[in-house]
Amino acid sequence: QLAGLAVIAFGLWLRFGGVMADFASDKKSPEYFFMGLYVLVGTGAVMATVGFFGCCGAARESQCLLGAFFACLLVIFAAEVTAGVFAFLGKTVAIQEAQKIYEDIYEDYMKNPGGKVNRTIYRYHLALQCCGKDNVEQQMGLPCPENIQMPKASNCLVEIQNVIDADLHLVGIVGIAIAGIAIFGMIFSMVLCCAIRNTRDMI
């Protein structure tokens, strides 16, 4: 249950907090990346629910509930493996989508520097700590945050790739941890189920 709640909190933090929240607040957003986060949150909710029924099965020494607990953990394990493969294969697409969003905003700003997009592009620059698409963009009047390190943080396309790479790396670590917890849960549930059966046979 605690692991499930932790996964829910982690997925919601990645979705609504940090840099990716700025992309999500725009009309366009890297849905391919967020789709993986929705799967992560859903898995956490299922884990918390399954954990509750597993506790009930252990407390009541119910073989039926423990068997259902084992089956649910097996499904969660398969879902985590699938999500991990999905995240690995979809990383390039997610990066390209996020970079395309920034490039569209950049082009809109260049066409109309005084429009509403001025606030949007500044929000992205502030969140990513970057400015423009190459080293000379600082001289073209872009709304850039103060005290950013130039030229290292001047290319926002590179920073977007770094952020998504780091986030997906964290998602992968969490997925492996969930899979490990599921394996131990399945082992212990079967051991307990067999122990209950043996005890009843002896009685």
TrEMBL record:
Its cellular-component GO annotations read: plasma membrane
Query: Membrane spanning segments where?
Result: 37-59, 66-89, 170-196
Tell me the keywords, alphabetical order: Membrane, Signal, Transmembrane, Transmembrane helix
Top-level lineage group: Eukaryota
Signal peptide (residue range): 1-21
Membrane topology summary: Multi-pass membrane protein
InterPro entries noted in UniProt: Tetraspanin/Peripherin, Tetraspanin_animals, Tetraspanin_EC2_sf
Annotated compartments? Membrane
Give a Pfam family name: Tetraspanin
- Give the main localization category: membrane
Report the sequence similarity comment from the record.
Belongs to the tetraspanin (TM4SF) family.
Q: What is this protein called?
A: Tetraspanin
